[in-house]
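ok so i was messing around last nite and threw this chain in just to see what happens. nothing serious, just curious
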Amino acid sequence: MTTTLMQLLVAFVVLQAVLGTNRQIVTGNPAAGSFLSVPTTVKRYENDTVLLPCYHNSPYRYVRWSRDDLLLVDSRYPDLKTPPRMRLWPNGSLEVTEVQTEDTGDYMCEIMTDGGKASQRHTIEVQYQATAAVYPEDPIDIRVGQILEVVCQVTGVPQPYVQWTLQNENASIPFENERKLAVLIEDRSFSGPVQCTATNGVGEPATASVEVFVHFVPEIEVKLPTVHTRVGETGILECLVTAHPIATIHWFHHGLPVVFDRRIVKLDALVTKHQYYTVQRHQLAIRNLRDADLGQYECKAGNRVGIAGGQLELTGRPMVASFKPAAEMSSPTTHNFIWQTESYSPLIEYKLKFRRVPSGNVTPSRRNFPLLAWNELIIPSDGSYGPLHSIGYTLQGLQPTSVYEVIVLSRNRYGWSDPSNILRFATGGEVEIEPGSEDTSASMMPSSSSSSQTTETLEYSESELGNFAGDGGLITDNMIPNDFFDYGTVGEGAALRLAPISTPFGL
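result:
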């Protein structure tokens, strides 16, 4: 049986040789070297001409081209209509003229030779300028604290590079090469256009943007928190409100809503109508002031996002005093002061507070040891009616070659003023500076034994000075009875008086 099979196989091979049917049938890509052309990707701009080669080392019976499995041309069928802008060359190459973006794709060349069928793939990549579109397209209303999400849809070959820009006060680029922007809205400065820029190196970059309107809690600015006035005059309180949406304003006095009438009116005016917010000036005008009108006020502004308030005070208390240069010379144990203040009501008295500063370190905020306690003197008023009041005083019994600090307050029937800035001065003589002192400014202390002295005015802090508004209580609308001050002794004009004190107060 085995011998029979072998005989049949030999007979079959001989028959094939006689009939000439032993030619190789190629059903896939031929062996390497069968194509003279090589697969390639052709990158061109729009309206360029592209020639796709299809060269084989053997004559072919027919050639067939397709794109993305769609038949384009077949040499066996001359009546087949060739697509516009395409032409088959006699050597089998395919020409595409005035290429457009829709011509991008994979092109397959198939040929039939005496050796069988072979195929080769080419690619056309039509490069074109990037485009960009932002979604949502309509303006975006968003609140502070929310997440802004914007999508940028881009097209273009090569693939575009995406860049986001917030064209507002931030001038920042939170994300790059991201199709979707997600950013936390921290404050109203995020209002403005959000722009997407797509770039691929072909032509100019493409941009698209959308407007963002941030809704925020009203912001209140009080430029004059304390308004000094007098009974019978007109007092005006003012606050500036920045908001979006526009805020509604309400006034309160000691926590109760202000009742408006012919004497108490509110005045509202538009300051700025910005694209993304509105600034308005709101005033509360009180004519023919009464004692009951004095006190703490609040300007409250509210919109659908939230409510904010600004504190104001309408008071008859004296204004903060300021020290002026003294004309008379001081000595190593004395120092002359002149200060000035304004009060619409007669002044009753002044409070002068002073203390010695360790000379090894003259900057209070940098000391590692507690400051000495304040000494205070009550100085009667000179009886001037004002409103401008000036007075001089000589502080005696000081330690030579020392540094002192002094502040002053003034009082009328409505209470004590806020404390003045600190005046720091050095008494005459040489002041010894400890080694390693952080502040060795020569302008602060004299270096000779002369009687000249140096002064400097400093801003105070509440934690450093404590509370100077009376005897430990906060300044309110406390009023001294009318009979406390003898109005019959008040003279006209402001008087300047030196009041030397013989009792030593050296520390």
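not much to say yet. The two ends are 137 Å apart (CA to CA).
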